[in-house]
Amino acid sequence: MPGLYPWLRFDKVTREQWIEWYGIDLQQIDRKAAETYLEGEADFFEDFDQEYGDFFDKQDTLEDRVSPNDRPNRLSVSGVGLVPFGRSQKFGSDWNGALDAVLGGWQVSGTYQYQSGFPLTWNSAYYDAACGDPTALVSNIGKTVNGKILGLDVPAWDTSCFYFHDAAVQTNGVDDPVKQRNDQRIQLNNNVRYFPSMLPDVRTHQLHLLDVGLFKNFRAPRGVTLQVRLEWINALNYTVLWNPDTNPRNSTFGYVTQDRNNPRDLQLGVRVTF
After folding, report:
1. Quick one: average pLDDT of 15-33?
2. pTM of this structure
3. 108 pLDDT exceeds 90?
4. 159 against 97, higher pLDDT
């Protein structure tokens, strides 16, 4: 009967995993002004694993691959500092009390995060052997090349090797994308798999996220403190391009059709402490 296997079959059963990690944590505090500090953290690591079941002609062989959780580089920096305006600051030392009460004593805070993208997961796919090893493929989602944004205007990686280029998929001697996508020869769901389940350099979009805040505490009678705060969430208005299409049979193969985060957001908040 079709669909039956002569032995037990387990798809993607992890057998081994290992991580190489290096990190550094830095912190600087101005002890003269406890409200001022700067700290940062950087991580560099590689995450690998091995799995059964991806190469169905070798049920007892593990596939060495980069882990789907691999994010090689991560950097986070955060800090709080005094804005140099006010009676005790570099600018505005001659301000009167009313002006200093409004414009002096403000603080700025910021948080920045950078993170590498993680590798995409692939189903079985045809790949032209003349193109070499598919693990050499590299994606550059969001990068601008020749005035076009990869992943939006053109595919984020080279898609030509995922198709045939013979007369069967051509019209008037020219490759026909519709025929290429519908070519039965690239439909390999029931074939022995040779295409890797992970490509180490075909990854999701990198993260570059910056949040900035501006705030001041106003003292009121009876121990009441009023804090006014302005916040710019995603101050760079950076778009995280998400979920690129990895199915060569789709017209959107290699393109991004979603984004992951919200656009720049300005928030105003007031907090009363008593």
Report:
1. 64
2. 0.77
3. yes
4. 159
Residue 40: strand pairing partners: 26, 77
**Long-range interactions of 141-148: CB distance < 8 A, separation 24+:** 141/117, 141/203, 141/204, 141/205, 141/206, 141/241, 141/244, 141/256, 142/205, 142/206, 142/239, 142/241
The reply to whether 7 falls in a domain is no
Q: How confident is the model at residue 38 (pLDDT cuts 50, 70, 90)?
A: confident
3 within domain boundaries: no
2 assigned to some structural domain:
no
Domain span at residue 42 reads 13-273
Q: Is residue 5 part of a domain?
A: no
Q: Count the domains in the chain.
A: 1
CB 42 within 8 A of CB 71: no
Could you tell me where the DSSP H helices lie in the chain? Answer: 97-103, 177-181
Burial of 44 (0-12, 13-18, 19+ CB in 10 A): middle
So what's the pLDDT on residue 7?
41
